[in-house]
Amino acid sequence: MIDKWKNILKLNKWDITTKEIDPTSVTYPDDCPEEDKYFVGIVPQEEALHATIFHDRKLTERDIIHELLHVRYPEWTEEQVNEAEGILYKLNKDDE
């Protein structure tokens, strides 16, 4: 699935890996709803063309789209990434 989205987002030169982390290693504010207590984030190393997606639950296709958008468009706000993620997912969900 990562390769599919690397191709769509023109990130083919990038090496994207994933790493599962212990959920107890992440802390949340007291007012964070239970359904929002998960972690998915990407750490890009632009000079090495490598990025790692860290996660404490199973990754979804939307997670991958979202994190790769952060790599492709690092200047975008979270709101812009969220909007593009939804659009791209809907446009490409039947391509499989």
Task: Describe, in plain words, how this protein is organized in 3D.
The protein is of the alpha+beta class. Helix content is 35%, strand content 19%. The protein is built from three helices and three strands; from the N terminus they run αβββαα. It has a three-stranded mixed beta sheet, covered by helices on one side. A hairpin with a 4-residue loop joins strand 2 (40-45) and strand 3. Helix 2 (61-72) packs across helix 3 (78-92). The radius of gyration is 14 Å and the shape is globular. The mean pLDDT is 94.
Q: Please summarize the sheet with the most strands.
A: 3 strands, mixed
- Rounded mean pLDDT score: 94
Shape: globular
What is the tally of beta strands? 3
**Head-to-tail CA distance between termini:** 10 Å
Radius of gyration: 14 Å
Instruction: Give, in order, the helices and strands.
Output: HEEEHH
Helix content: 25-40%
The neighbouring-strand order within the major sheet is 1-3-2
SS strand fraction: 15-25%
Q: Tally the helices: what do you get?
A: 3
Poorly predicted parts: none
User: Which structural class do the helices and strands define?
Assistant: alpha+beta
Task: Write a concise keyword list for the protein shown above.
96 residues, alpha+beta, 3 helices, globular
